[in-house]
Amino acid sequence: MAKHKGRGWHGRLLAAGLGVTALAAATSVWTAQADPAGGRQPQAGISAPDGTQDGAGKKVAADIAHASDRGARGVNITIDDGPDPVWTPQVLQLLKDNGVKATFCMVGTQAQAYPDLVKQVVADGHRLCDHTISHDTAMDTKSEAYQSQQILDAERMIIKASGGVRPQYYRAPGGAFTPYSRQLAASRGMRPLGWNVDSRDFERPGADTMADTVKREISNGPTVLFHDAGGDRSQTVEALREVLPWLKQQGYSFGFPVR
Length: 259
Fold this sequence. Notes:
single chain, 259 residues, alpha/beta, two-stranded antiparallel ribbon, 10 strands, 39% helix, globular
């Protein structure tokens, strides 16, 4: 799974996120302990910010999900890096116009900044995904303590912003999963989430090019990656305007990633 490079806004976001992480290091109630297999997992019995026990939620697998719950002709639309006050409402309107439910992979600091948008995503019937607090694409080279803070602090921010709705998935920035991060996410009821088709909208190659990429590569698998933050997403909106009805015309239905 290729890592995205050259994301200037994420460099700035990382700097902000590191401040949150530093604070969390001093105040976080989360600790880790070795499991019998030699991996690491959050300490059991500690209350999460929403009052549930650590690991609450449906038990899910720790392997990276790609499949759709709608079967062989299902498509999972996933929207990363938001919410954003300019682009998320436009994406939500397009999804509503086409009767499509999607999975929004949210950066914790963005969710914290725009809780009304998080609530709107939930109200429209979409699902939430933890995308860490600072979108560090080098997370797989960092310590387990750092990975824990990135995942758990983002989870806390998203739950608070949503009014108590838990993220059902975890997507590592740039696909920078580790065995530890996957196991940690699964212990929290968040299935690790990959993708099959990258629209490459972050490069802003033009809406037509992005739409053509999705049409050409959808046979690779059902989970399609778009973004609703991190810069000008007008091309993403236009690409979705073309792609969503096209997928319907080809006989695809829209669902959620398997859990």
